[in-house]
Amino acid sequence: MSATTAHVAQFGIGTSGGGEILRTTDGGNVWTKTTTASQFVAPVGFANWVYFFDANNGVSLGDPRNGSFEIYTTSNGGTSWTRVPAANLPTPLDADEYGLVGSYCAIGNTIWAGTTHLLGGSASNPLPARILKSTDRGLTWTASAITPLQGFISKVAMSDANNGLAFRGTDLIATTDGGATWQTRTYTGNFCHYDMTNVPGTNIIVSVGSSVPTASSFADIGSSYTIDNGATWIDIDRGNYHTTVDFVSRTVGYTGSLTDADGAGGVYKASPNILVLNNRNPELQKALSVYPNPSATGVFSLKLNSGIKAGTNVRVIDALGRQVLNQQLNATTIASQTATVDMSKEKAGVYTLELRTDNGVAQQKLVIQ
Question: Which residue spans adopt a coiled-coil conformation according to this UniProt entry (predicted)?
């Protein structure tokens, strides 16, 4: 919450269950339990996560206990917690549906949370999972229709109130109606399935980790982003073993990672130039013109408007998310208001052109016949 105040949910070790919420107000030197002995009681109770919308209002999701999800809210900064009545919650599908540690995403006063659904608690017996949603800071909840994902929802990442993604392994699903329904998302590029998060205030979602079911080399791991709700993933980097990711603003984001033999790595900070400028600029988008498109030769002409400056970056991404062209526009090109994009050495197919400026990004699909 600040340099001094933070909240954490913790749970019992092994199969003992239980859990609690702790708070520090001195930068982490001393932690005080804020839930009571009757909240998240073992062995059924289990505190999956805690989230604060502002300094006073927070919510914590627990597994079902006494027939309903054990969800608590606070309006006094965590000093006390009140359980949400069963009447304000969707009924668990059965005794095998419960919460999942860290599987949530919040935008404004709305929060989404994935569930786990395993027959008898066994990962070898997955059942259809759902995504829960509250639009009033946790006071009332609804549940999505059954999603295509089996077993559990690893993470939810919403880019706005309507559009977002969720995944389990390399299986990705998308919503365009705020999470009421979810459909399987077919995608190109390297979607990385260790963790995923939205970049606040943008349409960007970032993924980190392995882009294959089981990584066999450093070439299989890295980070990527999407700006079209998961249809296309573009590499940020490859070969860095990112395991977790979070963004607190448009320009501030971090990943947790493995260190190398010399102890280097561990934490990475995102470069603002990688992500913040990927926001589409509507005026720039309208002014972008590429011809001929489709191109039989792989050579395209790019028409520029007067607002484009020297040093503007042009890059092209293939259907697998790999960068195949990267060039900067010089003063001569800017003066003529035309540029040539030569992809004559590339194979026939669909590519994405990105024009990056100080004011944002414009994109255009390119087709080589």
Answer: none
